[in-house]
Specification:
The chain is an alpha/beta fold. It folds into 2 domains: 2-29 and 275-402, Beta Barrel (Lyase, Ornithine Decarboxylase, Chain A, domain 1); 46-269, TIM Barrel, CATH 3.20.20. It has 12 helices and 20 strands. The protein has helices at 16-23, 32-45, 63-72, 81-89, 106-115, 124-133, 171-181, 199-213, 241-259, 271-274, 307-311, 398-402; strands at 2-4, 7-9, 27-31, 51-56, 75-78, 97-99, 118-121, 139-144, 166-167, 185-189, 221-223, 264-267, 278-289, 294-298, 317-319, 327-333, 341-349, 356-359, 380-385, 388-393. A hairpin with a 2-residue loop joins strand 1 (2-4) and strand 2.
């Protein structure tokens, strides 16, 4: 989003205020040009014979976005059987969908097998069961490299106490199961966390994974996960994807030469691809002055965008109705019956009731984590593509809230105080 003649515009000159008038607030808007730019950056960064980018659709799973990634040649990283079905619905080839669940039942894994997608196993228990039930089905194995990485402990998933993956110290056990069942291991995978800045963390993880890969003779691919850090505010740092690409590519090519053939290098970015492309627009319901704080209360809350409350995440906040007005300090809050604070003491162009505020970097883990808490309705989603706007999810109605509720008539006595 950029300023032009004191108006904020999206790619192609699309005015977000017009979108808010057309579709109502609160509203999620995604700019496909930014998503495409980020996807191309990754493609350009890694110079290896075989590269596959699997979009981590848990970041934002709208079918229209999935279809864009399919058209660009991406695969799909899924973590639930429902996401697998979404990928199939979006038209992905079964071989381009990898299923990486955690702590699911063997029945859910078997359903994925029946659908025909790639399977990624992340526990000894699941590996033993799967090897006995489906020794003919090739699998990937998720390794826990015991690396503490990421911008938040809740999103760090590769450390020693993480529930994700099979510990590097359990590799002898894994190899015994593979030998005993005769199952083919076609891939190895790791993911250490989200918001990783230091390229050397990826290099360390890569060295661990590639060293383990020597013991598996029939590999087709190695998946290094993702977790690339994106800048959430002006002056913020981000993963230098170009530097990382150069280092990883060199290391991976060396490994393939020693392994005897070219394997596919995989990554599964989510936030890096869609975070910056998303904007969340909400209307100011009330300006409330207390003895020490000026609150700007929105027509939204943690039910629509929970990251600031859940992760202490920072989202830049802009008054798109008054971009040129003198800035003041506001604490921006929501309308939920909880403490749902989007930002404290933010310097924002002077706000009046009825103004539209924008929360930036709302493309990843924002709508996908939305809920109906307080029986509130989830907002609409709009995609801006090549200068045109498309409604890609309708705003919910009260009928949606009630759809799956079953009313029963119960007889009960009136309770009175004795």
């Amino acid at each position: 989003m950029y300023l032009n003649n004191n108006r904020y515009l999206l790619t192609g000159g699309v005015d977000p205020l017009v979108l808010c008038e057309k579709y109502g607030c609160p509203l999620y808007v995604y700019d496909s040009a930014i998503i495409e730019r980020q996807y191309q950056r990754i493609l350009d960064a890694f110079n290896v014979p075989k590269l596959k980018i699997n979009y981590a659709c848990k970041a934002s799973s709208n079918l229209s976005l999935l279809k864009l990634f399919k058209q660009w040649g991406a695969g799909l990283d899924t973590v639930s059987i429902q996401e697998v079905h979404l990928g199939i619905k979006a038209g992905f080839a079964l071989n381009d969908i990898i299923f990486t669940p955690n702590c699911v039942s063997i029945e859910e894994i078997q359903e994925a097998v029946q659908l025909g997608v790639r399977i990624n196993i992340d526990s000894i228990s699941a590996l033993e069961q799967f090897g006995q039930l489906h020794p003919e089905v090739p699998i990937c194995i998720r390794i826990n490299p015991h690396i503490m990485a990421g911008g938040n402990r809740k999103t760090s998933v590769g450390h020693i106490d993480s529930k994700f993956g099979i510990s590097i110290h359990q590799m002898p056990h894994v190899l015994r199961i593979v030998e005993a069942t005769g199952i083919k291991v076609e891939g190895l995978h790791m993911h250490t966390g989200s918001g990783i800045l230091d390229a050397d963390v990826f290099i360390l993880g890569a060295d661990i994974l590639l060293n383990i890969a020597k013991d598996f003779k029939y590999l087709d691919y190695i998946d290094f996960g993702s977790g690339f850090k994106v800048p959430y505010k002006e002056g913020d740092v981000e993963t230098n994807i170009e530097e990382l690409g150069e280092k990883i590519s060199e290391r991976f090519i060396e490994f393939c030469e020693s392994y005897g053939r070219d394997l596919t290098l995989m990554f599964e970015p989510g936030k890096f691809l869609v975070s910056e492309a998303g904007y969340f627009f909400a209307k100011v319901n009330v300006i409330k002055q207390t003895t020490s704080t000026v609150f700007a209360g929105l027509d939204s809350g943690l039910n629509h965008l929970i990251r600031p409350m859940f992760y202490d995440a920072y989202h830049e906040i802009t008054n798109i109705s008054k971009p040129g007005d003198k800035p003041r300090f506001y604490t921006v809050v929501g309308y939920i019956c909880e403490t749902d604070t989007f930002g404290v003491n933010r310097r924002i162009a002077e706000i009046q009731e009825g103004d539209i505020l924008c929360l930036h970097h709302a493309g990843a883990y924002c709508f996908s984590m939305a809920s109906n808490y307080n029986s509130r309705l989830r907002p609409a989603e709009v995609l801006v593509h090549e200068g045109k706007d498309y409604l890609i999810r309708r705003r919910e109605t009260m009928e949606d809230i009630l759809r799956n509720q079953v009313e029963v008539e119960l007889e009960a006595e009136v309770l009175v105080q004795v």
